[in-house]
DNA sequence: GAATAAATATCGTAATACGATATATATGCA
DNA sequence: TGCATATATATCGTATTACGATATTTATTC
């Protein structure tokens, strides 16, 4: 729809910003490959979590808590932030993790509204096993990912 | 569950593969950060697709088709493969895209069982706009992603 | 100490991926 | 040729889960 604009742009010495004027076959291929790689990694992660008896979100919640800088617990809202979901979604998620005995709720002594979500011994063990194989996997896919990212250096711009 | 094995391994001069023996705080943080970055990118993508009137999966289906090497169409099964979903999930997904007028079904002249899913003019335009901003975004997050990946070079091993 | 804000919780709903199953076409082989 | 089996796509009912709307509890402010 911007063909005419491109033409006008092309009449200048240098087009200001070609934007979506030219997205080439190679660009689609690069994006598609990149997304496929991400999906593969995410699928690997889901499979691993599933084998450990966890849903992907449960795994990510545990990781968010143990991966928090400085502390070993998080509040509901902070978990929601890190997981990019709404507060009440985090509430429900934590409900299920509590039911599984993988986290516990403790009211914050300094603010009665807030609760601290702590990972239990059992939760920590499962997360540790999962994390170990994830580190391996990230190492494995790193070269592929780097190669795919590199394709975008010269892409799409003009 | 493999604690005993670890113990036995630890009695050797050098543990063969410490695996999940030691996953440190920094490892959890690195994994958590990495996943957060992926979520952010995926959220950006969802938002962009949504603004274009598409679900994330619809966007990915269009991208998979136009991003297929050598051809400009794909069969249902191939779409399912690239999207890592079951065949019938892809069928339903394509149903919705057909309803939106973004793709069309054409029976393959060489195999009556197979159908070719082609992207329409309208579908292509939407995908082009989406792809342009995605290329921009990937360029933007590249440095962050590379930095995060780098953290895994020395991680978790032993 | 009443009003407002912040954190967490509850409930009903909608979207979608899935398993089980069905249909249509192709292929192999006696 | 014709039947058995395989492959590709389609249909239907179900379960999971994230969400919006709303409620409850505790803090804060003036």
Q: Supply Rg of chain A.
A: 22 Å
- The structure class of chain A reads mainly alpha
Q: What is the overall shape of chain A? A: elongated
In round numbers, the mean pLDDT of chain A is 88
Note the total helix count of chain A: 6
Oligomeric state of this protein: homodimer
- How can the largest sheet of chain A be summarized? 3 strands, antiparallel
Residue share in helices of chain A? 55-70%
How are the strands ordered across the major sheet of chain A?
Answer: 1-3-2
- Please trace the helix and strand order of chain A, writing H or E for each element: HHHEHHEEH
Q: What percent strand of chain A? A: 5-15%
Q: Could you list the spans of chain A in which at least 5 consecutive residues all have pLDDT below 50?
A: 1-20
Q: How many β-strand runs of chain A? A: 3
Largest interface: A-B, 49 and 49 residues
Q: Whole-Å distance between the termini of chain A?
A: 16 Å
Question: What does this protein structure show overall?
Answer:
2 copies of one chain form a homodimer. By secondary structure, chain A is mainly alpha-helical. Chain A is built from 6 helices and 3 strands, in the order H-H-H-E-H-H-E-E-H. In chain A, strands 1-3-2 form a 3-stranded antiparallel β-sheet. In chain A, a hairpin with a 2-residue loop joins strand 2 and strand 3. In chain A, helix 2 packs antiparallel against helix 6, helix 3 crosses helix 6 and helix 4 crosses helix 5. At the A-B interface, helix 2, helix 3 and helix 6 of A face helix 2, helix 3 and helix 6 of B. The structure holds a DNA duplex (30 and 30 nucleotides).
């Amino acid at each position: 729809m911007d063909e005419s604009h491109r033409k006008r742009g092309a009449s200048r010495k240098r087009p200001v910003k070609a934007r979506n004027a030219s997205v080439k076959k190679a660009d689609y291929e690069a994006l598609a490959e990149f997304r496929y790689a991400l999906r593969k990694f995410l699928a690997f992660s889901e499979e691993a979590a599933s084998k450990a008896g966890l849903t992907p979100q449960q795994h990510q919640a545990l990781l968010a808590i143990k991966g928090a800088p400085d502390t070993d617990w998080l509040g509901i809202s902070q978990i929601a932030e890190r997981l990019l979901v709404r507060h009440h979604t985090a509430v429900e998620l934590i409900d299920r993790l509590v039911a599984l005995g993988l986290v516990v709720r403790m009211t914050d002594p300094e603010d009665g509204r807030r609760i601290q979500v702590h990972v239990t011994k059992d939760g920590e063990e499962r997360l540790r096993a999962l994390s170990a194989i994830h580190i391996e996997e990230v190492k494995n896919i790193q070269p592929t990912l780097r190669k795919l990212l590199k394709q975008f250096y010269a892409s799409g711009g003009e």
